[in-house]
Amino acid sequence: ESHAQTIHHHILRNLSHHPVLSSGCIDKKNNLSWVTVMCNLNPTVCAIADSHHIPSLNTKLTGRLDDNHHISTTWVLNRNLNEDELYAHVAEIKVFCNTYGLQVSESYPYHLKVSGSASSFNISLQTQLQCYQAADQHAYHASPFPLKIPSSWNGKFDNILGLNTNKIANCNFKLLDQPTVVPNGNINNTSVSAQFTPLQLATLYNFPPGLDGTGQKIGIIELGGGYVLADITTYFSSLGISNTPNITAVSVDGAVNNPSDTSNNTEVILDVEVIAALAPAASTRVYFSPNTYKGFYDAIHQAAVDGCSIISISWGNDEAKWSPSTMSTYNSLFQSITTNNNVTVFSSAGDHGSPDGVSEFPAASPYVVSCGGTTLTANNNGTSIVSETVWNNNNGHATGGGLSQQFAMPSYQSSVSFSLNNHRGVPDVCGNADPNTGYILYSGGRNIIVGGTSAVAPLWSGLLARINQSIGHSVGFLHPTIYANYANYAFRDITSGNNGIYSAGVGWDACTGLGSPNGVGLLGLISNIIPSSNIHFAEIKLAFPGCGNSLMAYRGQHPSLPAAGAIISMGSFKNLTAVSPTHSLSSVSGTNLAMDATGRITGSIGSAQVGALSVILSSYVSDPAYQKGLTYILTSGTLPAGFTLDSTSGLLSTSTAGLVDTGGSGMDSIVALTVTNGWGKTSNMFMTFHLISILI
């Protein structure tokens, strides 16, 4: 049989590429296998590119798939079809399926669920499904011949997923061999100082504080394994998190949360506990699907349909293990959900370094944020990073990274100094992944310490959940922002170490991408607190030396804010209140203030005070680090008479003893300042001054 299998594989490998193949069979009695070559003389059909299966040489052919075997498939249509074209094409497909006894049971835009018997698929697509057994004893079926569809579908039809049920992806976690047991799951009492909880990593990576993922929905893709909710509840308690875990298991294509699948449980625990700890108030949905081309795709698609704004993937495989057409189909999905649905997808870059210099998929997709790994060392109390280098244990375990052989260099990578030779480079970002400096988790009554780039995708997912919460909307396609505005305040550039072929260096590299996160800096970058052309944050200080009761109304306007402008709060000299960009006012102790519909403030400050009144031109979270190095230069307009501006401190002051209220007539002054921060980012800030009353 071994000799017969070798002959079979030789024939299939050399002939199944040919578009005229239409069937194959096995003679078990005589222990022989062969293919029947038939010329396709019907010009009304065409083959789906790369739709045939080429088994590995150590895979056994076990026979023809039973004609009555029921199969469910996903048919993917070209997303460039307009509404009328899509409607007509779907109608055409339904007629075709009905002709061959195939049922179209469910449809989404550009997706159809088609099911039926193996015989119906064989006849309609002019193939012969075969059964195989992989080296790990996994049984599956696939078509050794290209699938054929009506030629009138050419350009309108993308792919059929579900006829090949071979496993496609591996999870990218590494379990530390001898984890320290933490009694009763009390992780905070562990004496292990070399590893970290997710919350400790959030501190080290300067995640924005005071945020918990409220209002966010995060999808986790799992192709096996399961979790026990009681373990996560215990984990939360050990970390001091009071929230009840908000975690939902979602079944896709019949797969379910399966804690008895011990080979994949660690991956699930890693993904769920890292994300849930970093964003405990978020809705975390775990999509369990079969480990097949169809299952993997359907889970990602379902997460997007369900409204997840972040999708975390810790499964993948070398690009060479995927067919080009299938990668193209997945990539079209990623493009659609990131650019049209504002979904951000994170995926692990792999755990085996760069032995062949190429990359894993789906991390290689230009629309997926590829996550590489580092080795992280912190000080004794775990509050600051001492060093961070490329993760490489020199035993075959190292961060993935390299150049894609499927995807060309995207435009957002055109500015990197690394030589990409017109290839998509991975990873994009990185984070702690070395199991020796790994993540302290909890499962089955004990703690476990886990590493791998599988940990980095959920780490970044938790960070983005906080950022999305802060800015009030999902980021979506993240790449153009982080590449165009790359700066050291948003990333920690990793410049030491290698993953085999590639070495780290200044700027982007094929080991650690742009670097590990500075969470607060990244929030500033994404929310335009420190963007390339706008600054939402500015501080203006008003001082009235020698004044008694005094009041000034201040209305700040900025091109990025609503046309009506932002009404900035009045506060006492000892208080600061930020008001959202609407016409409203927060009461401050010691004041008697009111605001009309136009934003005009009237009233008085109750007692004489001398000092500086600070206002904030933003409803976003600000951080003292952003104030560093700000300079203010008057570029147009004229300050009110008697006022001066200190270009270094931003102090706006007057020595005038008193000003007369003119009811707004002739007292308005519109000026523009150029504000520059310590990193050289500049913006024009527009201000309107209207003196209401100054009482001596």
Descriptive overview:
Helix 5 (229-239) packs across helix 6, helix 6 runs parallel beside helix 9 (456-471) and helix 9 crosses helix 11 (519-526). The N and C termini lie far apart (105 Å). Strand 31 and strand 32 form a beta hairpin. The protein contains twelve helices and 40 strands. The strands form twelve sheets. Strands 14, 15, 16, 17, 19, 21, 22 and 25 form an eight-stranded mixed beta sheet that branches. It has a five-stranded antiparallel beta sheet with strand order 32-31-40-39-36, with no helix packed on it. A four-stranded antiparallel beta sheet has the order 6-7-5-11, sandwiched between helices. The longest helix is centred in the first third of the chain and has 17 residues, at 83-99. With 696 residues, the protein is of the alpha+beta class.
What's the average pLDDT? Answer: 76
Give the biggest sheet: 8 strands, mixed
**Helix count, DSSP H or I runs of 4 or more residues:** 12
Helix content: 10-25%
Strand-pairing-aware structural class: alpha+beta
Radius of gyration: 30 Å
Let me know the number of strands: 40
Strand content: 25-35%
Terminus-to-terminus distance: 105 Å
- List low-pLDDT spans: 1-42, 180-193, 529-593, 595-629, 655-671, 683-696
Q: Tell me, what's the shape?
A: globular
